[in-house]
What we know:
The complex is a heterodimer. By secondary structure, chain A is of the alpha/beta class. Chain A has helices at residues 10-20, 33-36, 68-82, 105-114; strands at 39-45, 54-59, 86-92, 116-117, 147-151, 159-164, 170-174. Chain A has a four-stranded mixed beta sheet. Chain A has a three-stranded mixed beta sheet with strand order 1-2-3. Chain B is mainly alpha-helical. Chain B is built from 13 helices and two strands, in the order ββααααααααααααα. In chain B, a hairpin with a 2-residue loop joins strand 1 and strand 2 (11-13). Classes of the chains: A alpha/beta, B mainly alpha.
Amino acid sequence: MNQGDTYINLTEKEKIWAVLQTVPDPEVPVLSVIDLGIIRDVIITSDAYSPCNGVKIVITPTYSGCPAMDAISFDIRLKLAEHGYKNIAITTLLSPAWTTDWISEAGKKKLKAYGIAPPHTKQIVCDTRLFAEAEAIQCPLCDSYHTKLISRFGSTPCKSLYQCNECQEPFDYFKCH
Amino acid sequence: METLGFAINNKKYPVEDISANLFVREKVDFLLHLADTNLILAQRNAGWCGHGPILEQDIAITNISLDLLGQARNFYQYAALLLNQLAANAMSNATLNFQESGTGIRQAPSPLEMSGGEVTEFQDSLEKHPAEVTEDTLAYLRTEREFKNLLITELPRGDWAQNILRQFFCSAYQFLLYEQLIKTDDVQLAAIAEKSIKEVTYHLKWTSEWVIRLGDGTSESHQRMLTAFGELWPYTGEFFMPAGYEKKDITAVDTTSLNQPWIDRVTVVFKEATLGPIISSMAGAGFMQSGGKNGIHTEHMGILLAEMQYLQRTYPGANW
């Protein structure tokens, strides 16, 4: 993937990562695209025929049909352009497939503060046993583990719907994947 | 004595070239079969939007629809990439041929023309869209005979039992199929399968639970499952009847070999749903419908496409 690069400027790369940290996920705006773990690579390309360097951002979708991916690409492009970057290319990589393990620790804390239960690290809920109760999901509002699954499919492809038996609040769980 | 080769457009090709081209074209057909199956099933499930029995399940079935649509897009994008490459090759060959023979020859086929089916049926879409193939041209500008989806996906949505059972049959099949596709040496196809199977796992679990809930529910829901089974069963045989393009070097799997694992998987759920007797009496029996993989569809398909493609047919290139 890096074969076309003539040089890699680390500090420049770090700057781009810092810019990406300010691009929010459109569905869960407290998370940046970095927190979400969908930025797979930042590559600085230089073109011998062009005075300015190009930037290539490699992203991976959370879910195949996630409608936010187009918006995310657009937002990344816009934010980089705001910071004076040109020749921006955004490519999508499907393998290895995105997993909730890639959501950063900071991201998980932000999710909880936002009222969405963060995904557990183990993919217990993904087994195929029928009616298998998911592992206890902690209510992001009152911290109780006394919660129940309402539906495995929630308001967006990446979430399922839960309800807390203690405080009775319904909440979203960022389902493991 | 003439050397081995094929003559296309007055030009001789060595054996290796043409077989490579054929390989890619068959792979495109297989990708379109996968994409079309997902797209049409997504379209049918989307028809439940606003009609689900309760809000949560309305959201669930449309979530599944969205997953299927996303997977279809991945397959279409890959197919479009290969078709455009094939067209570029054909164009450079045609140019070569023209320079060599100095005579006017048939123009290189456009990528749309190469997306399969009968050439005559393309004339309309070709004239409007001579440019390159995209996921959108594949979804919106091909005709009924060019679609290679499984017949079961195009049947009307029926009642909740029928829709659940169809999605269950399809998810169980896709789970087994994608498990194998992950192992192909085609990196992109394997990546799409790897991504998709995570979603299919959720679909399979959700539909399995619903089959049990309905089969082992009230006498009304049980009866509706039996009716749904009668409607859908004749369309399940097509899963395992390989089309010409489903060759093992393309699919990495012998399609027929998935039949028994599929029956086993379905049987486990059916037994728990108190539907055991019907599956054991029907497994491996009965007349099976086929044709979808080769573009021969039911009478429902044309109506579905008329609705799905209406906007792009009426306002070509419309965007939002």
